């Protein structure tokens, strides 16, 4: 079941709130002493996260199916997507936050109200040990929760109607999410520097048939992720700049001028990336942007 992205979350007694985790959505299937972990697209995650599968096998509550998110935690215990992408090179803990129960002991729970599924999940979660965690549920004033979540530097909140059923594979207004930062998908047209130690990606967006430059993004990379991104993009190198609005005048001192473009490596605009950002300027540029992941 998918969340609808909204600018403003609903309020009222019928809404439950959860912290929006930033990781890989995953379904866990446990049947006696066996356990499997799958992505939403059906990819088998079991070999990638064997410690989570081992933890699932230790739960003695019969057979069941869980819905949750695999996340990597930073030094303050916050979910960080870049740490998850860099997990092979990082010592940061990777955990499985569980937020729903879909089947239990041959009983299909998809048409059972969320509040009842949560109650059944609480019993199973009583046996959770690391790296398994129950995603906390809050039934409180939204303004108070929002202030606390922002203060902790978490990425957002999910609101779920307490009486909602589970609709597999579909987006529903019964589940709504709000990120405190905006997000979007942008075309990669180059990077500053050369090789796997490039300093920033140069990204843009199509307006009609023309590709417009909107940002050089340097935030969000680890050394390992930077190398992985370079390896994905290096085959697209080209001599031609794909952006119609470059070079820029150097009015602010930060423009991508003709002189600075000498340090750029251009790419055929065939790959995209997902980024989060605070806002757009009046000219359509992104402010405080951070790289999240490559997308096909």
Describe the structure.
The protein is of the alpha+beta class. It has two domains: 2-179, 2-Layer Sandwich (D-amino Acid Aminotransferase, Chain A, domain 1); 182-295, OB fold (Dihydrolipoamide Acetyltransferase, E2P). It contains five helices and 19 strands. The strands form four sheets. Strands 3, 4, 5, 6, 7 and 8 form a six-stranded mixed β-sheet that branches. Strands 12, 13, 14, 15, 16 and 19 form a six-stranded antiparallel β-sheet that branches.
Record the SSE blueprint.
Layout: E1 2-5, E2 15-19, E3 24-31, E4 34-39, H1 50-57, E5 63-72, H2 81-85, E6 94-104, E7 107-108, H3 114-125, E8 132-134, E9 137-138, H4 142-151, E10 156-161, E11 171-179, E12 182-192, E13 200-207, E14 210-217, H5 223-233, E15 237-238, E16 264-277, E17 279-280, E18 286-287, E19 290-295
Parallel strand pairs: 1-11, 6-8
Antiparallel strand pairs: 2-9, 2-10, 3-4, 3-5, 5-6, 6-7, 10-11, 12-13, 12-16, 13-14, 15-16, 16-19, 17-18
Write a short abstract of this structure:
With 296 residues, this protein is of the alpha+beta class.
Order of helices and strands: EEEEHEHEEHEEHEEEEEHEEEEE
| Count of DSSP H/I helices | 5
Instruction: Report the radius of gyration as a whole number of Å.
Output: 22 Å
CATH class category label of the largest domain: Alpha Beta
Query: Structural class, from helix and strand content?
Result: alpha+beta
What characterizes the major β-sheet?
A: 6 strands, mixed
Query: Oligomerization state of this entry?
Result: single chain
* Terminus-to-terminus distance: 22 Å
Mean pLDDT across all amino acids:
92
Q: Give the tally of structural domains.
A: 2
Strand percentage lies at 35-45%
Note poorly predicted spans: none
CATH H-level superfamily of the largest domain: DNA ligase/mRNA capping enzyme
**Helicity range:** 10-25%
**CATH fold name of the largest domain, please?**
D-amino Acid Aminotransferase, Chain A, domain 1
Number of strands: 19
**How would the global form be characterised?**
globular
Q: What is the level-2 CATH architecture name of the largest domain?
A: 2-Layer Sandwich
């Amino acid at each position: 079941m998918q969340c609808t992205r909204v600018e403003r979350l609903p309020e009222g007694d019928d809404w439950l709130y959860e912290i929006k985790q930033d990781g890989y959505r995953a379904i866990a299937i446990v049947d006696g002493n066996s356990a499997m972990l799958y992505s939403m697209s059906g990819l088998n995650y079991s070999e990638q996260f064997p410690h989570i599968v081992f933890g699932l096998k230790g739960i003695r509550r019969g057979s069941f199916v869980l819905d949750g998110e695999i996340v990597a935690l930073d030094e303050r215990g916050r979910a960080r997507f870049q740490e998850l992408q860099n997990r092979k090179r990082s010592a940061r803990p990777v955990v499985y936050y569980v937020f729903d129960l879909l089947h239990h002991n041959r009983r299909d729970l998809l048409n059972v109200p969320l509040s009842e599924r949560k109650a059944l999940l609480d019993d199973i979660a009583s046996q959770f040990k690391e790296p398994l965690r129950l995603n906390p549920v809050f039934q409180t004033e939204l303004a108070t929760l929002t202030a606390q979540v922002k203060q902790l530097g978490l990425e957002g909140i999910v609101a779920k109607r307490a009486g909602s059923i589970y609709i597999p594979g579909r987006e529903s207004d019964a589940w709504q999410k709000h990120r405190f930062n905006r997000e979007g998908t942008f075309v990669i047209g180059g990077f500053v520097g050369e090789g796997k130690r490039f300093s920033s990606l140069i990204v843009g967006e199509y307006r009609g048939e023309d590709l417009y430059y909107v940002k050089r993004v340097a935030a969000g990379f680890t050394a390992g992720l930077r190398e992985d991104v370079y390896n994905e993009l290096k085959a697209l190198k080209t001599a031609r700049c794909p952006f119609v609005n470059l070079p820029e005048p150097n009015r602010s001192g930060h423009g991508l001028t003709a002189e600075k473009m000498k340090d750029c490596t251009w790419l055929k605009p065939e790959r995209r990336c997902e980024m989060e950002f605070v806002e757009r300027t009046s000219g359509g540029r992104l402010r405080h942007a951070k790289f999240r992941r490559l997308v096909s």
